[in-house]
Write the structure tokens for this entry.
Amino acid sequence: MNFLKTAACGAWGLFLFAFPSLLEGQTPPNFVVPSGNPPLRRTSEPFGKGLARYQQVLSSQDIKVGAVNIKLIGFRPNKYSSSTAHKLDMEIKMGNSAKTPAVLSTTFAQNVSGVLSTVVKRRKISLPALPGPGGFTVKFPFDAPFQYNGKSDLLYEILVWGNDIGNKPFFYDLDLAFSPYVSYVANYTSPVAATGFRQVGQGLVTYFEYGKATFTPFGTGCKGEKGYVPAISNVGLPRIGQAFQVHVINLPGLRHAWLFAGKSKTAWGKLPLPFDLGPLGLTGCKLYTDVVFVYPTQTQGGTGNNGYGYVTLSIPAFPG
């Protein structure tokens, strides 16, 4: 399936993420939010609280790596930590945030832009014992990379469905930082709770490993409003019976946009492709695919090129 970036902002090229591998012995590229040396306190949230739903938002202003494929999330034990190992029935999800850390909602659903990707599928996971400091030793490799677009505020959600001591709380102290770049909302009565309590300006010190995204262009983008050239990427992968998203960035918010999906890049009926859209007033833009499906959306975000939009595509399952 070929994707065309729409005439609303000029013709866009499709970019597909690839996953480059590391040479043996190399340290994976990583980043930490909040960065620097913010004030800290210790917390047993969320892993040591029994049943849990925990959402944390991380400001894009403190994420300097651009568009990447996030492959692992980790947390740092507090220097006073001491805990035996435990086993949790849990999962982790990740996505883009609809709220900045300053205005995080106490309603979990209101904080999510689009849909969350399950990066660590629900299962029983062993938490390591905490002998004390030693870096980010509590790590969760992803089952599938999360493709971060480099623009949006980032959100992750930890759901704890049970633990090995009858869902009772236990001490599992991690580093929590005070910083304007993070906030969280949590509920420790149920992993399906709709609302929770909010802590603005504080959150777990969170470590991420990633692979740099490489891009294969489909067509050549053209300038839209104020000279910005929009770019699109996918969040998640197109799998049978599941949904994934196509995101557009580098354009103003509150604008109409359309994603065209087709099956040919050489002809649309009798019309040869690519087709020059200049005579229609879209100077420098071309139509690169036939139009079989049209998915409308409206961009969110601020002025300048800080806006973004997305459409959610459901891949049908084969019958039987």
The CA atoms of residues 244 and 289 lie 20 Å apart. Residues 2-15+213-314 form one domain.
